[in-house]
Structures are given as structure tokens and as C-alpha cells.
Amino acid sequence: MPIPHQEMRRIIKRRIRGLEGADRVDVLRHFLDEFPGYYNGPYGELRKWVLGLIEETNQRTEVRHTDTFFLARQGARQVVLVGPPNAGKSSLLHALTGRQVAIGDYPFTTLRPVEGMVAVGGAQIQLIDLPGLIGGAADGKGGGKAVLAAIRIADAALHIVPLTDAGLAEGQVVAGELEADNVRVRRGIVATKMDLDPDGSRLHQLSELFAGAPVAACSTLTGAGLDGVRSLIWELAGLIRVFSKPRGAPVSSDPVVLVEGSSVTDLIGRLNRAWLGKVRHAMVTGPSARFAAQRVGLDHILADGDVVELAID
Ligand SMILES: Nc1nc2c(ncn2[C@@H]2O[C@H](COP(=O)(O)OP(=O)(O)OP(=O)(O)O)[C@@H](O)[C@H]2O)c(=O)[nH]1
Ligand SMILES: [Mg+2]
Question: What domains are there in the chain, each with its CATH number?
Fold first, then answer.
């Protein structure tokens, strides 16, 4: 009589706890060899389950052995989605960009970065969904090194924390790994699965745990809060919108999107490079000007919402 299949499943789970890579696969293969030769019924199911675990382990190992991901930059800014496994990162990427991605109720559904573009404030921003981060990531666990390297070179990161009890704890683990690896990227928190926190108590807990960080809460299930997430992306992206005004003509309704700290010269470079050297000064109205139509030099630093009239010779 073989061991009842439920009992066998428990034994296997216990034996592979804490094991990864080749060690985990060895143990799983050993069990497969020991199974009675049934291919149907409960033992058939068990066999399929173990084969699935082997496949999953091999995929994770593949991630761990990748040192860096190649992510071609696109758009005005690159913003990464960072968080524990199963946090809802891929669901959010899909909700914001429409990109078709694998979504699953198990950890490590995403093994490679997936990118999508989201339009915010007139700018195209590249969002990158990354594999989940786990405790020990800074020491390379679960492919953590490659993920952390991708975060480091991004312009900003959305730290995804699901509003579940486990999620809040895992969110702190992720924050600890970013700290341990000295990642200094601009960060905001996106609290996901808001539908699982109907009285808002976990959101309240989250804002205390991550005091000082900007927070947006959403649910991709109900669609609530997604506009707030877009605003947070804009805030983190560090971009400004500037409106150019040809002399004697109305203000253009299409803003030019520039990175914070850009000057009049940067604006000219974006509008028409042929004007570089021909523009001597500009008239600025808006937040960066002390008064309307202030005459400024080419090195004047612009601000979000400025209207700029270029004086072309
Ligand atoms: N209730 C609820 N479930 C959600 C929400 N967003 C995602 N989920 C579920 O959470 C699970 C994980 O979602 P994913 O988007 O795959 O999570 P992930 O962070 O990309 O996971 P990994 O790729 O494994 O790191 C899936 O079962 C989703 O259906 C949400 O807003 N509410
Ligand atoms: Mg995913």
C-alpha cells in the first residue's frame, strides 16, 4: 500500500522547504522515482504537481543566474515596479499600459522584465514590471541582484505593497533589501488590492510604516485609485511641462515635456535645433518668472507650467 497521496504531498512540501535550485530539483526527482507507477488518479495528480514544481524551480534558477536584464529605454522616463512576489505588479502594469502580461496567484509569475508605456501629463513614461523581491535579495536570493541592478538605473520606482497582512510585512522586507543594497532611486508607495482592505485599516497601518513616502492606493480588480497612481508616477518622474508661444501667436496647447532643471536652451533643442544660436533671449510667464513676460537668458531654469516666448533673430 503506498502512502496516502495527501500525506505524501505534505512530506514533499516539508522536505523541500528552504531548498532551492539543483538541491530542490534533486529531492523532487527522488520522490518521482519512488512513486508507484500510476499515471491516473491521485498519484497521477501528485506526479503532475511534482513535475510542475521542478519546472518552476528550474525557471527560478534561470532568473538567479542572470546578472543583468537588458532594458532599452523608451519615452521621457523609466519607472520600475518593485515589490514582493504576488503583490499585483503585473496586474498594475496591465491596468496602466494595456500590455498583456502573465498574472498568477502564485509567486514568481514574472521571471523577466516586461515593459509598457503609460501617458501621464502629456509625457510617455516607460513602466517596467520586475520579478518579485524576497528577503535575502541583496545577497542574490531569488535573482535579487539582477532586479536590484535594474532598479538602481531607473529614474524612479513604484514600491508595490498589497493591502493584506502578509503584504505589509513583505513590503517592509523589500524596503529592507533596497536599504541593504543602498538603492537610492526616488520612490513612492503603491498600495494594491485595496478591495481587500474595505475599512482602510491596513492602508492606515501602511502610511505609518512608510511615513514620509508619497502613497497611492488602488485596486486593479475594481479600477479604483488608478488615477491617483498616474499622478504619483508624474510626481516621481521629475518632469515639467512648458508651453511655447511664437511671437504674436497664441500659446501652443501641446506642452513640451522636459526633465526638471531644464533651461531655455534645452527647450530650444527640443523645439527646433536650427534655432540654437539664433535665439538671444526669451520672455517667460509662469512659476519660474518673477513677473509676466520676464526677459530671461538662455540658461534660465524653467518650471512646470511656464509659457515661453522665444525671441528669434
Ligand atoms: N483582490 C485583488 N487581487 C489582485 C489585485 N491585483 C492583483 N491581484 C491578484 O494577485 C495575484 C498576483 O497578481 P500579479 O499581478 O501576478 O502579481 P505580481 O506582483 O506580478 O506577482 P509575481 O510576478 O509573481 O511577482 C493574482 O492572483 C491577481 O489576480 C487587486 O487589486 N485585488
Ligand atoms: Mg508579475
Answer: 5-64 (no CATH), 77-237 (3.40.50.300), 239-312 (3.10.20.30)
